[in-house]
């Protein structure tokens, strides 16, 4: 094992909230090439990935520090042959286990094995409602057909299923069909999430940016479906920031409810945090996870409200949205320490909205597909 051992009992660290959830990005490898992938533009190679033993220790340390949920993600977590073993470790450590997958790389036997080991929940991504559209968006022929099979295997095992639907200008006009597909697949929940413009999505902004009319129509469809499908399907709706008045509480607040461990062991306050160039991220190979959460410089850079400039500092919403998204402030205002430009009080708000409207009105360029 090459990672740091837990903090010795009695070591003093600053008092911070206990994290509820850990995103374990097992690998950046993925057969799909989604143009909105939130993985960084420069990705860690297979040779840099943590070993099975290292991940097992990270999971045990997470459980010990109070984490309740682990989300196995990537890239495609099924690309790791030790996924099943890591699910067993997490279950034994008392963690609630969620697998976030494209479905590619899973077989019926693997789904049965994961179920037998106690996997609690699966989130299956769906790029479109028909093979031609879905496979074009995901950049992988045969992906849609595979997902339909995987959903059947999950249903047969009785594992609760959430469909993850990332929405953008090419699939937004099929929102109703996307919701219907989730019902057909036996999902209990669907996340209808407008694309977050980070990582590869920032590169593909103009190709992904929806029109205001598309967004408004989607909102109406979601509201109607929520009423109609009460007791059948829960619909979580993530509205787009570019047409908002106020930002979301990104990550539930920086360093407040969750942490993210990358394939090579870096610990991030959010999955896009590497887009903020001045932050330095600690690695589980060098420091215990609990120490990084409490004392790490990146976690303390924007934790709480003390770091806030005006207008956030004196705003009545500062404990509700924590100033919004740091990565969005970096991308659109050039400084992660500023108010999120999604907020109407930000001096960069009008420019961000104007850019979105201009891009949405243009003929969409071809996708720049995510590559390793
Ligand atoms: S968003 Fe697409 S490319 Fe990125 S990890 Fe998920 S399935 Fe793979
Ligand atoms: S000024 Fe800051 S705290 Fe107030 S709503 Fe805008 S982003 Fe949130």
List the helices and strands and how they pair.
Layout: E1 21-25, H1 52-64, E2 69-73, H2 83-92, E3 96-101, H3 108-116, E4 121-125, H4 131-138, H5 143-157, E5 161-167, H6 175-184, E6 189-194, H7 199-203, H8 205-208, H9 212-228, E7 234-238, E8 258-261, E9 267-268, H10 289-295, H11 297-301, H12 318-321, H13 326-333, H14 349-361
Parallel strand pairs: 1-2, 1-8, 2-3, 3-4, 4-5, 5-6, 6-7
Antiparallel strand pairs: 8-9
Helix pairs in contact: 1-2, 3-5
What portion of residues is helical?
25-40%
**SSE string:** EHEHEHEHHEHEHHHEEEHHHHH
Strand order, largest beta sheet = 7-6-5-4-3-2-1-8-9
How many helical stretches? 14
What hetero molecules are bound to the protein chains? iron/sulfur cluster
Description of the structure:
With 372 residues, this protein is an alpha/beta fold. The two termini are 27 Å apart. It has helices at 52-64, 83-92, 108-116, 131-138, 143-157, 175-184, 199-203, 205-208, 212-228, 289-295, 297-301, 318-321, 326-333, 349-361; strands spanning 21-25, 69-73, 96-101, 121-125, 161-167, 189-194, 234-238, 258-261, 267-268. Strands 7-6-5-4-3-2-1-8-9 form a nine-stranded mixed beta sheet, with helices on one face. β8 (258-261) and β9 (267-268) form a beta hairpin. α1 (52-64) packs parallel to α2 (83-92) and α3 packs parallel to α5 (143-157). It is built from 14 helices and nine strands. The protein is 34% helix and 12% strand. Bound molecules: iron/sulfur cluster (SF4) (2 copies). One iron/sulfur cluster is lined by residues 30, 32-34, 37, 39, 74-76, 102, 125, 370. One iron/sulfur cluster binds at residues 246-247, 311-312, 315, 317-318, 321, 323-324, 339-340, 343, 345.
